[in-house]
Design a protein that fits this description.
The chain is of the alpha/beta class. The protein has ten helices and ten strands. The protein has one domain: 3-Layer(aba) Sandwich (Rossmann fold), CATH 3.40.50. Strands 1-2-5-4-3-6-7-8-9-10 form a ten-stranded mixed β-sheet, with helices on both faces. Helix 2 packs across helix 9, helix 4 runs parallel beside helix 5 and helix 7 crosses helix 10. Keywords: Oxidoreductase.
């Protein structure tokens, strides 16, 4: 099958990467009408790659994110022939650098008028010793929480005007073991990379709970999903026990992408709605997290705005 291509500027280094498109489809499907554009972070490996493989057949435009232009171009070239009519767009950014995230946001905003699905999947475990990014934050906290929050804030209005927007934050149930997002605690002499990872995921779950409340009454919904322990590089780095197949984890994430949600049913474990830790539902916890996040990102978070959120027609 021939693959035609256009060009997308690499937002990190200014080089060009390829945007692959398969042959036009013979017939449209319902999900393409309701969810035409999706972004998956951490798409070149593990769960993110498997999720991208599944989403590619269900959307018109799939933005696949990663740090390596060559890996992304190869992924796009693999996905496009198998998914006729879907534009697979590589977008490059290091989530450990706010400047990269900002360029990624601006690039997406320049090209697209709406975003229907945002899957914040990319994650890292902390280093063996306390490691700060060039922005001055603990590595896991920035990549696993601050960067997804920045992406969500920067693309929020594009998600809000979508016909049925969905934010999916990929988390880990290990967040229940820490019950805090205190980003200062990893910096003490007892720094533990697994604890730092769990704290970043606690923040992401509490952030999702805050989004759920803010988006009530709009067409935008937010969920978080624990896909289960999975045999990935991150799993091997973080935990001693083996994980399940990546395909099963991807199925769980796709379930979170497509499942209708009601009221505060936002925490998906596998394919079940479960009750999150009570701490993430506490308004003071959510407000403190939003305060810290807004100060770190030096921006007014759109989901904390006074008054009702505005939707597109």
């Amino acid at each position: 099958m021939d693959i035609s291509a256009t060009h997308l500027l690499d937002p990190t280094v200014g080089s060009e990467v390829r945007v692959a498109r398969g042959d036009p489809p013979q017939a449209d499907v319902e999900v393409r009408q309701t969810r035409p554009t999706a972004l998956v972070t951490g798409a070149t490996d593990g769960i993110g790659r498997a999720v991208s493989q599944r989403l590619a057949g269900l959307v018109d435009t799939l933005l696949v994110h990663g740090r390596c232009p060559e890996s992304l171009t190869a992924l796009a070239a693999t996905l496009a022939p198998a998914n006729p009519g879907t534009s697979v767009v590589p977008v490059v950014a290091d989530l450990g650098r706010f400047a990269d995230v900002e360029r990624l946001i601006q690039r997406i905003r320049t090209i697209y008028g709406h975003l229907d699905i945002l899957v914040n999947n990319a994650a890292t475990v902390g280093q063996h010793s306390h490691t700060l990014t060039e922005d001055g934050h603990e590595l896991a906290f920035q990549v696993n929480y601050l960067a997804p929050a920045f992406l969500t804030a920067g693309l929020f209005d594009l998600l809000l005007v979508a016909r049925r927007g969905r934010i999916v934050n990929v988390v880990c149930d290990a967040y229940r073991d820490v019950a805090t997002f205190d980003q200062d605690s990893p910096g003490n002499r007892c720094y533990n990379p697994v604890v730092a990872y769990a704290q970043s995921k606690f923040a992401l779950v509490a952030h999702t709970a805050s989004l759920v409340s803010a988006c009530s009454g709009t067409r935008l919904t937010a969920v978080c999903v624990d896909p289960g322990f999975t045999e990935t590089k991150l799993q091997r780095q973080s935990f001693c026990w083996p994980g399940g197949p990546v395909s099963a984890a991807a199925d769980n994430v796709l379930y979170a992408v497509t499942k209708p949600v009601h009221d505060r049913e936002f925490y998906v474990q596998g394919k079940k709605i479960v009750q999150p830790l009570s701490e993430v539902l506490q308004i003071p916890v959510q407000r403190q997290l939003d305060k810290v996040t807004g100060e770190v990102l030096d921006m007014s978070l759109p989901w904390t705005a006074t008054g009702p959120l505005r939707m597109g027609a």
